[in-house]
Design goal:
This protein is mostly helical. The chain has a single domain (about 1-290), classed as UbiA prenyltransferase (Tetracycline Repressor, domain 2, Orthogonal Bundle), CATH 1.10.357. About 80% of the residues lie in helices and about 0% in strands. It has 14 helices and no strands. It has helices at about 1-20, 25-40, 50-70, 85-90, 95-115, 120-135, 145-155, 155-165, 170-190, 195-200, 205-210, 215-235, 240-260, 265-290. The mean pLDDT is about 90.
């Protein structure tokens, strides 16, 4: 009985590692755009039930995304230093187990989506397709980071559809901002693996941009701030929101300093640092509604 309990605990731990629950950065990066959209669509007071559905959805879909990503990359990950110890690579979790866990999470995500309004459900279906197909995109396109951005931004039209029954221009401005932001941080992430990806023949913006990577990242950072500024104008947001964007600009400047030498450790730290960008923008946004 004791041995069975230990084996079960080890299996559950490996499942948690497969879902990257020990590395919550992906949860934060998916959560912040959802919170931005919920607060703006809800005029600073989003519906509590919808809020809880979206927060649970963030956790479920990010976990499912990690599983299908590792399943798709199971033949490549052994050859990349950063991913060589993943559970599917070492054999601690079998491909069949991974797919079973993915389907189980997908069913939970489906149940959560059913709780939303009909228009939001339609957007949820499109979001699920994006999440499942992204891991395979890097085989065929040179800019999979932008594909990832669409997947990570998809909670925005879903939130507007769930809370207002429509998806206005404001929502699509926010989507553009998040797509560009995801391209920023995922290019930093791809800079960590650039040498290994080149050997494996994989595609990424880090490879496509080459020596122009820092300049193009900076250009996208400026466009993110501009898109969020325009979205704030559309939403009637004021000084607190602008202060949040100012803090976000400082975060972006720090990330440029971190990637200045293009060393993997600095690039990985810059990638993780994007959590703070999403946070300061949300803090400014929430304070703007709070002090009206």
């Amino acid at each position: 009985m004791h041995d069975a309990a230990i084996a079960l605990a080890r299996t559950l731990l490996d499942y948690a590692l497969l879902m990257r629950l020990h590395r919550p950065i992906g949860i934060w990066l998916l959560m912040w755009p959802a919170l931005w959209a919920l607060w703006i669509a809800g005029n600073g007071q989003p519906d509590e039930r919808v809020f809880m559905i979206f927060m649970a959805g963030v956790l479920v879909m990010r976990s499912a995304g990690c599983i299908i990503n590792d399943y798709a990359d199971r033949d490549f990950d052994p050859h990349v230093r950063r991913t060589a110890d993943r559970p599917l690579v070492t054999g601690r979790v079998s491909p069949g187990e991974a797919l079973t866990l993915f389907v189980a999470l997908g069913l939970v995500g489906t149940w959560l989506a059913i709780q939303l309004e009909p228009l939001a459900r339609l957007y949820a279906v499109a979001g699920a397709v994006l999440a499942v197909t992204y891991p395979f995109a890097k085989r065929y396109v040179h800019v999979p980071q932008f594909y990832l951005g669409v997947a990570f931004a998809w909670s925005i039209p879903m939130a507007f559809a769930a809370l207002t029954g429509a998806v206005p221009r404001l929502a699509w401005l926010m989507v553009i901002a998040v797509v560009l932001w995801a391209a920023v941080y995922d290019t930093m992430y791809a800079m960590v693996d650039r040498e290994d990806d080149l050997k494996l023949g994989l595609k990424s913006t880090a490879i496509l941009f080459g020596d122009a990577d820092r300049v193009l990242i900076a250009a996208m950072q400026v466009m993110v701030l501009l898109a969020l500024h325009l979205a704030g104008d559309d939403a009637g947001l004021g000084g607190w929101y602008r202060a949040g964007l100012g803090a976000g600009a400082a975060v972006f400047a720090y990330e440029q300093w971190l990637i200045r030498a293009r060393d993997p450790a600095g690039c990985f730290k810059a990638f993780n640092n994007n959590h703070y960008f999403g946070m300061v923008v949300f803090v400014g946004l929430a304070l703007d509604y709070l002090f009206r």
